[in-house]
Every structure is written in structure tokens, then in C-alpha cells.
Amino acid sequence: DSPFAEGEKLYRSGDLAAWLPDGNIEYLGRIDHQVKIRGYRIELDEIETQLLKIAAVQEAKVLDCDDANGHKQLVAYYVAETRLAANELKEELAKQLPGYMIPSYLVQLSRMPLTPNGKIDRKALPAPEEAADGGTEYVAPRTLLEMKIARVWQDTLGVPQVGVKDNFFELGGNSLSLMRLVQAVYDETGIEIPLNRQFHHVTVEAMAFGEGDQGLDKGGDSFIKLNKAGDLNVFCFPPGSGFGIGYRELASRLDGGFVLYGIDFIDDAVDYEAMLNRYVDEIVRIQPEGPYVLLGYCFGGNLTFEVAKTMEKRGYSVTDVLMVDSWIKDTLTSSETSEKELEEMLADFDEEEKELMSNPLVRERVHRKVKATLAYEAQLINSGTIPARIYELIAKDSEAFRLEHQLPSWRGATTQAYADYRLEGAHEELLELARVEETAVVIRDILEQVKRQIEAEAGVLHGS
């Protein structure tokens, strides 16, 4: 019942508004535009706002819909002055939004269908699988292997047709469906695609090509380019989990300024010296000339230090190293990793990662990688110094733990400048959604400083 007029009714419309002091009512949007997909809470209005900032886009509506397999996906419908390819829109959105907020499907319409009340008619919107633009010309499978892989894609994505050049993510795929795809490809063909190759090879053609003699070089599967644009490369070494993909949220926030490479622990080298040399070989393949900038979070800092020493030994100049809540390892530790310890480590994974772990193939690989990483960590002692500037970033919540256990800092590990910084939050939060924005601000400032120093040193070297 209405408190303002006796005998009248008030209806909850779901609209959010503010009653201003001058008597006007300001419309603020909808109350119920937050959805949860793959463990992330997402404001649909925020995605629509970013779409409307793209010059040619006139109208935009983002919905959460079930795909052909019953999985929730983000779908963006938009009206634009000119034809816009889905991949171009995704690239623009990726500059402003984290990966989990990029719509799986983008559908261009000539106009938005409306109800008689002037609201968007959801029932009249086309099904995303049928109307989404993959942004590439259809090329049919040309070999038996491509045909098999294409059929697996169709079954996984619930789409009627897949070309060999279609992009998996632009057809509505995400990291979870990618893992289901990898398992299905293995079941169908017996081909086991390395975890990081999945992120490089997102077309049928590339998946099939990677199995030939001209596939990725040995060691290349351990590196993944996590963002797209920047004028300084940063090579990021893995924590105890053994996977570099954990830097993905940080990378998305540094895109445009710095290119981050997430690096996995190499678990198939003949010995640890060969492993370190493979890291160096791949870094130099990606960036033939120095100087080089390295970064490591947690145990990744210990591995970074060893790689930096190997690079210097081989004549490659590492000028700057960022240690993110890491400390020098100066004692041997137990090499035995119990199943309980593994489970405790895996329990720290986020919701999406835990769902990935339900895939038996993925779970076996992760266990193997974690065990190999922890075995290397157990026997490692960081000794000596490097001629690189070290920036040590310490989580405020870690300071008491460091003091209690007398954990040494990296101050004495360099013959050059040393600086330390404080990060808000706990150790395990620094690269996660809870704190990654704050972490990225500090790291961006450091990397801007690094870039200026490298440019100044290059100018002095060349007499300019």
C-alpha cells in the first residue's frame, strides 16, 4: 500500500533513482543489473557504458544468457553507424575491462527491438550462437585432423559451423569451455595440448598446425603473452603453483603500457641448469636485445633471481627486477610434498580455477607442475648478487610474518640500487581481484620509472 495516497498501490519497478533537493528525480539505472558468472560478480551497466564510449556505437544492451550447453554467458547487442567486427570491439573493451567482463558474444543489430512500452524486447533478440560475428571469413577444414578438431569445437560451443580460422573466444568460448575442449580433443584425437599452448592456439588451424614439425619450439609452451600492447616487456616467473597465468589480472591492468609474459615452471628439463638456460633462450627469442626486466611473485622471486644470474653469466643485461612479496631462500626445505599440502594449495584457487580442476586432464597436469615446482624450491638456496636494480614490494599483512620468521629481504642481493614498497592487503590477495588494482598502480609507477631510467641510460650510451 502507498504511504503517500490512501487506497493506492506502489509497485517495485526495479528502477533506481534519487530524489534531488530541488524536487527533481534523477534516474540512476536498474537495481538488478549485477549478475554472477563463473564466480565473478559483474555489473552489466558497466559493460554497456564502455561499449557506448566506442565512437561508432549508438546503443548497447548486455545480457546474461544461457548458451547451447546451458552455461551462463555475457552477450552484448549493439547498434552502430557502421559495421564493426566483434574482435575489434573486444580489443577496445579489453583496454578498459578485465577479461571476465568481456562478452562472449557480440551481436550487431540494425535497431533494438522494443516492446509497446518502449523497453527492449528480450524475446525478439536473436540467439547469440546464430547471430554473433566471429570477425573472420569462413574457411572449411582441409585435413582429417582439422575436421576432427572442428567437430569437437562445434560440440563444445554448440554452434552449427566452425571454420579453421575462427577464434575460439570470439565464438563464445571462455577458459572453462576451453578446458572442456582440450579434454574432448584429447579423447577424440589422442593429442594432448600443453596448457599454455591453448592460449596461443585459439583456432582449429593453429591447434592442428601445432602438432606438426613446425609447432612451437621446445620451451615456447612455457611462455604466454598475457596482454597485447606496450613498449616494455616484463617477464613474470611463476609462484609455487608453477603457472604464470596467475598474472593475467595484473597484465590486463597494465595493457597499453607494458607487455607481460606469464611463464610456467619448466618441469621436463634434464636438470635445473638446463631449465634456467631454456628460460634464457626463450626470453632472448622473444626479445633479442636487452636490457631485460624480470618480475617474480612469492617463489617466483626466487626463480627470477636465478634466471637473472644465468642471463648475466651469458652476457645478457638485466637492469631491473621486481620482487613481489618474495624473500631470499637461504635454507634447504623438505622435498616431500604430501597430497594434503597439494590440496591445501589448490584450495586457494579461485572459483573458476577450482572448476577447471574438475577436469581430470587439467588436474593431473596441475599436480605434476606443482610437485615439480616445489621440488625445485626445496633444494634451492639463493646466493650471490646481481647487477640489477631490485624493487621489493611487500604486503603490509606480511610484515609481521617476515619479522617473526626472520625472513631476509633482497636488499643485499644487488650491487645496484634497492628500493622497497608497501602493498595493501595479504600476500595471497595481491594478484587477485580483491587487491590487484592497488598492486597494479604501484607496479605501473615502478615500471614507468624503469622505462625512464632505461631510456636515459641508452641516451648516455649513444652520446645523446
UniProtKB/TrEMBL annotation:
<dbReference type="GO" id="GO:0017000">
    <property type="term" value="P:antibiotic biosynthetic process"/>
</dbReference>
<dbReference type="InterPro" id="IPR009081">
    <property type="entry name" value="PP-bd_ACP"/>
</dbReference>
<keyword id="KW-0597">Phosphoprotein</keyword>
<feature type="domain" description="Carrier">
    <location>
        <begin position="140"/>
        <end position="215"/>
    </location>
</feature>
<dbReference type="InterPro" id="IPR045851">
    <property type="entry name" value="AMP-bd_C_sf"/>
</dbReference>
<keyword id="KW-0596">Phosphopantetheine</keyword>
<dbReference type="InterPro" id="IPR001031">
    <property type="entry name" value="Thioesterase"/>
</dbReference>
<dbReference type="Pfam" id="PF00975">
    <property type="entry name" value="Thioesterase"/>
</dbReference>
<dbReference type="InterPro" id="IPR020802">
    <property type="entry name" value="TesA-like"/>
</dbReference>
<dbReference type="InterPro" id="IPR029058">
    <property type="entry name" value="AB_hydrolase_fold"/>
</dbReference>
<dbReference type="InterPro" id="IPR025110">
    <property type="entry name" value="AMP-bd_C"/>
</dbReference>
<dbReference type="GO" id="GO:0031177">
    <property type="term" value="F:phosphopantetheine binding"/>
</dbReference>
<dbReference type="InterPro" id="IPR006162">
    <property type="entry name" value="Ppantetheine_attach_site"/>
</dbReference>
<dbReference type="Pfam" id="PF13193">
    <property type="entry name" value="AMP-binding_C"/>
</dbReference>
<comment type="similarity">
    <text>Belongs to the ATP-dependent AMP-binding enzyme family.</text>
</comment>
<dbReference type="Pfam" id="PF00550">
    <property type="entry name" value="PP-binding"/>
</dbReference>
<dbReference type="GO" id="GO:0043041">
    <property type="term" value="P:amino acid activation for nonribosomal peptide biosynthetic process"/>
</dbReference>
<protein>
    <submittedName>
        <fullName>Non-ribosomal peptide synthetase</fullName>
    </submittedName>
</protein>
<dbReference type="InterPro" id="IPR042099">
    <property type="entry name" value="ANL_N_sf"/>
</dbReference>
<keyword id="KW-0045">Antibiotic biosynthesis</keyword>
<dbReference type="GO" id="GO:0005829">
    <property type="term" value="C:cytosol"/>
</dbReference>
<keyword id="KW-0677">Repeat</keyword>
<dbReference type="GO" id="GO:0044550">
    <property type="term" value="P:secondary metabolite biosynthetic process"/>
</dbReference>
<dbReference type="InterPro" id="IPR036736">
    <property type="entry name" value="ACP-like_sf"/>
</dbReference>
